[in-house]
Design goal:
alpha+beta, elongated, 301 residues, 25% strand
Length: 301
């Protein structure tokens, strides 16, 4: 046989013709060299895992098939579910007995590998975490706790949430109260201009809310001097004789003399009407000041 026809172990150069060998990275090795060079060491018995044994691995650790066992009960973990705790491998039963939490609803252990729900230190099987109203599993959906119970959002809104008196929908976050009625912030509007009143000063008329501007424009008395609404009682001067209203002169923006003159003309006219109703004739004295005398038909004593 020529040299080119030889088929030898890459490491020890022994002929592999008619023998078992192992290929690694396109290179052939005899079983003995392969085990010495590349075989993993078993975590349990500390011997190489030979070519004739199964190599079971977990997180870069290796075991013979017969060495892959529960650290507590020594049952084989090959082809079975297991859990790790402090670098120890445990069967699901041993792990659940020593470390798993128990479902607060059914009181059974939540086994490793099964989904569980946790909230404030309590645990549930996924199928045991139910809405207290509709009794449907809530899974990973949003829920709301209330009086030691847990509710899905639709059930909570139906049973507990306030209903906005404007849109009739549930108020889930925020809101305002007016006349003992709940409103969404965005639904509490001025009846006139429809602006939001939440956080703003407002007033009411006949139980309807108004912003101050709309209320002033619609209902506030108007100043006869400047024709603007009078928005404060401290600014109001009521002229009883003819029912007009005015800002106090110091507050009114129009203080021109002609406005004051016009007002006094109106007052003089009212006084004249009152005198005529009482049969009183206004007279002028020599000094130019106004005086009055009353005609008396009864004899004087």
């Amino acid at each position: 046989m020529s040299t080119s026809e030889r088929f030898d172990c890459h490491y020890c150069k022994d002929s592999l013709l008619g023998k078992k060998y192992i290929m690694k990275d396109d290179t052939q090795y005899c079983t003995k060299c392969y085990e010495n060079l590349f075989a993993n060491c078993c975590e349990e018995c500390s011997t190489p895992i030979g070519c004739n044994s199964k190599d079971l691995s977990y997180k870069d650790r290796h075991w013979h098939e017969q060495c892959f066992k529960c650290a507590k009960c020594s049952r084989s973990l090959a082809d079975k579910a297991f859990a790790a705790r402090d670098d120890l491998l445990l069967c699901t039963e041993c792990y659940a007995h020593d470390y798993s939490s128990k479902c607060i609803t059914c009181k059974k252990t939540i086994l490793p590998g099964s989904r569980k729900m946790e909230y404030k230190g309590n645990s549930w099987h996924e199928t045991c975490f139910l809405c207290h109203r509709c009794q449907q599993p809530m899974g990973t959906k949003s829920f709301i706790p209330k009086d030691n119970g847990y509710f899905c959002v639709p059930c909570f809104e139906k049973q507990f949430a306030y209903q906005c008196c404007a849109c009739k929908k549930a108020i889930t976050t925020g809101g305002v109260t007016y006349q003992d009625k709940p409103w969404h912030r965005e639904c509490f509007l001025c009846i006139g201009c429809k602006r939001q009143l939440s956080g703003q000063r407002f007033t009411s008329r006949e139980n309807y809310p108004y912003c101050l501007e709309c209320f002033s424009n619609l209902y506030a008395k108007k100043c006869v001097g400047c024709t603007k609404p009078i928005t404060s009682e401290s600014q109001l001067m009521f002229i009883h004789s003819f029912g007009s209203h005015s800002h106090l002169y110091k507050n009114c923006q129009k203080k021109k003399k002609k406005n004051l003159t016009k007002m006094f003309q109106i007052l003089s006219f009212v006084r004249l009407q009152v005198w005529q109703g009482l049969n009183i004739s206004p007279l002028r004295s020599a000094s130019g000041t106004a005086s009055a005398s009353t005609a008396c038909s009864a004899p004087c004593h």
